[in-house]
Amino acid sequence: MKKSKEKIIKVASDLFHKKGYQQTSVDEILERSRVKKSNFYYHFKSKEELALKVLDLRIEEFESDVIYTTLRDASLSPKKRLHKFYERVKAFHQGLKCRAGCPFGNLAIEMSDVNEKFRKRLGLFFERWERTIENCIKEGVENGDFRGDLNPALTAGLILSQLEGAIMMVKTYKTLDPLAKGAQSVLKLLEAA
């Protein structure tokens, strides 16, 4: 039974990322995972419940595998943390061949106006991510890595917004250039004189 649940989650995660929540049917998830409908409904009451579980797992994985190993890595200077973070994001999108976009940004665009549960979960996640960037910027300002006239909170919001926009352009143009050039520009703007 556990194996069925894992297969459902894995297939659904991939489909939700590549096609979107609304364009993915339970039947397609069942077909691709080769799990029977009765098994699906044994584990999940609905597609929404499955999608929220997928979202929670994606958030948990992103925070542990990316945010904690880059932006929160106290063994690195704030400048190196931010650089390493951008490199991880670029590698992820290169692995996707510049397709599919950001699973969080995609879901926020698709579902925030139509489902409050998705909007709230994504909002809390983006707030945590932005606070992590803010703390990195604040530390960088304090230790001289970054310009002293930066407002860490405003800068963090700008960085996250720029990043999500750049990922959308990567998906649109099918090239890493918007992400690479955006990262380079942001790091240059932050540099202390």
Describe the structure.
By secondary structure, this protein is mainly alpha-helical. The chain folds into two domains: 44 residues, Homeodomain-like (Arc Repressor Mutant, subunit A, Orthogonal Bundle), CATH 1.10.10.60; 143 residues, Tetracycline Repressor, domain 2, CATH 1.10.357.10. The chain is 75% helix and 0% strand. It contains nine helices and no strands. Helix 6 crosses helix 7. The longest helix has 28 residues. The protein is elongated and about 60 Å long. The termini are far apart. The relative contact order is 0.11. The model has no long low-confidence stretch (mean pLDDT 97).
Topology of helices and strands:
Elements (H helix, E strand, L loop, with lengths): L1 H18 L6 H8 L3 H7 L3 H21 L10 H18 L7 H9 L4 H28 L8 H22 L3 H14 L3
Helix pairs in contact: 1-2, 1-4, 4-7, 5-7, 5-9, 6-7, 7-8, 8-9
Task: Give the fraction of residues assigned to helices.
Answer: over 70%
Rg of Cα set: 18 Å
Order of helices and strands: HHHHHHHHH
- Number of helices in the DSSP assignment: 9
Q: What's the total count of β strands?
A: 0
- The fraction of residues in strands falls at under 5%
* Structural class assignment: mainly alpha
CATH H-tier superfamily of the largest domain: Tetracycline Repressor, domain 2
Under the CATH scheme, the architecture of the largest domain is Orthogonal Bundle
Q: What is the average per-residue confidence, as pLDDT, rounded to a whole number? A: 97
CATH level 1 class label of the largest domain: Mainly Alpha
| Total individual domains | 2
Shape: elongated
Outline the biggest β-sheet: none
| Uncertain stretches of 5 or more adjacent residues | none
N/C terminus separation: 59 Å
Instruction: Using the coordinates shown, work out and report the CATH topology of the largest domain.
Output: Tetracycline Repressor, domain 2
